Every structure is written in structure tokens, then in C-alpha cells.
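for the writeup, i need someone to sanity check this before i put it in the appendix. the sequnce is what the collaborator sent (i think, or maybe the updated version? ugh). structure was predicted straight from it, no edits. if anything looks off just tell me and ill rerun, i have time this weekend
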Amino acid sequence: MAALGWLTPRRRPATARSVLAGEAAAEAARKSSLDAEQSAEAGARAGEPDFPVVGDDRAAAFFDLDNTVMQGAAIFHFGRGLYKRKFFERRELTRFAWQQAWFRLAGVEDPEHMQDARDSALSIVKGHRVSELMSIGEEIYDEYMADRIWPGTRALAQAHLDAGQKVWLVTAAPVETATIIARRLGLTGALGTVAESVDGVYTGRLVGEPLHGPAKAEAVRALAAAEGLDLARCAAYSDSHNDIPMLSLVGHPYAINPDTKLRKHARARDWRLRDYRTGRKAAKVGIPAAAGVGALAGGTAAAVALHRRRR
């Protein structure tokens, strides 16, 4: 019987053995599931031509920014950097905190209330020079954003660049912030929310509306016309169902780290999916997409939350 002692170890409690067995089974199941998904994906793509197509200069790629290229919201990180530099007054912080709380609790995009929030947000930069915020933005990228780029999405963008195609960010974040990120990643450029400026100084008004939802699709359509692109040969990447209009424009839509609605929509239409999040959990940093304020209000509210935690 001594030879069978290894079958009945006595030193390890039964509960510990159960935990070990459970963990081993879970890991094996997870690995098996991932292998099956990869095999199925490989089989589904086996008959397709290589993509992106090398040398196809009538094709381009359009990437959403928040939670697609970068973990969390770019404007959240930008707000942290501005608050660190004492860019806001306490009175402004209190007002923005209240407005952001209203959006979170109500979950309704009341036009008048949203307009008030946008006007308040733009008052942050009113009177400041564009060059000033661009310079600060460069520093903030190094401090808070550089380490939050999704490597998987970055590789997808690089594949388009290597194929000789242009790659654009398309985001509700301020175009200045988006341009900095695009340049740092070696991308072609960025489409973002445009704040009006005169002689290099912000006026406190937007040019049009925040680049959100259908506005992104219109921006992509306009850029494609100006660049002579064939949208049927282009690709678009996003995590949010709000970007379905943009994704639907192109011949190669990708759902990246998708929210529940986008995942369902993508599966129903056989769009390609990629998820780079651990445990398929969405990043919780930033403001709700439903707020639609886009640019500066979300960043300020984030700064308020940071201030409160420090106190």
C-alpha cells in the first residue's frame, strides 16, 4: 500500500486540494475555450484575402479612441493633468461636478441641460491660447496616456500603416488632444471635437457639435470624399454602439473591446470582434458615453473626483 501513498496525500487539507483542482479545471477550460475561438476564427477567415491590402491607397482605417485605442477616456486623463497644474478654480470644479452628477443620475440627454453643460465646459479654456493647451497636452500624454494604449489595437493600426494606408483617430475628445495622441502613435492624423479659436485664442464656443455618434460618420464620410477613398475598402474600429453609424459606413467594421449592444449588433452582422480586456471587463475610467458632453466637462468632473479622494 505504501506504493499508493501518492494517491492519498495527507499533508494537504481537503479544502486546499479542492481549490487546486478547481483552479486547474478553470484554467484548462479557459485555455480550451480560447483555443476553440481562435480555431473557429482562423477557419472563418481561411477563404478570405489578406487584409489590409498592401498598396491599396484608396483604403484607410478609422479608429475610435476611448477604450478602443486607449484604456479609459482620454479627456479623463487630460483633466487629471490640468487639475495637477491648477488649471481650474474651485468654483468651476463645484459647478462641473454638479452637472456631471446630473448626467450620471438622470441618464437623459436633455437638450437644454446639455447645452448649458457644454457652455460651462468650454468656459474652462476660454481666453487660453491653443498653443498653451497643446504644450500641456504633450506633457500629459507622457504622464497619463502613453502607458494606457492597447497593444492589440496598436498592432492593428500599424498593420494598416505597413500596408501603406492612412490611419485616423475619430473621437469626441478635443481635436488638439486627439492630434497629439495620433502623432505620438505615428498615425496620419485625427478627427475630433473642434473648439472655436480666433487668433490662436479659444472663444469658449464649439464649431458645430461634439464629434459623437452620427457626427463621427459624417466626419469620416467628408474625409473620405476629400481624400478620394473608397469606403467599401476602408476599415473602422470602435468599442461603442454609439459608433455603429461610423462602423456601418465601411466595408471592414471591427468591434474592439465592445460594449454589450455593439457586441450583439456585431455578431448579428458577422462583423469582426477583438477583445483585449482581461476577463472581457470594460474599462470603467471616464464619463458615460451617454453624457455626450465630450470634451471638457468629463475631464473636469474627473478632476473633481480626484480632488475629493485626495482630501
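The radius of gyration is 23 Å. Strands lie at 60-63, 166-174, 189-193, 195-198, 201-206, 235-238, 252-256, 272-274.
thx in advance!!
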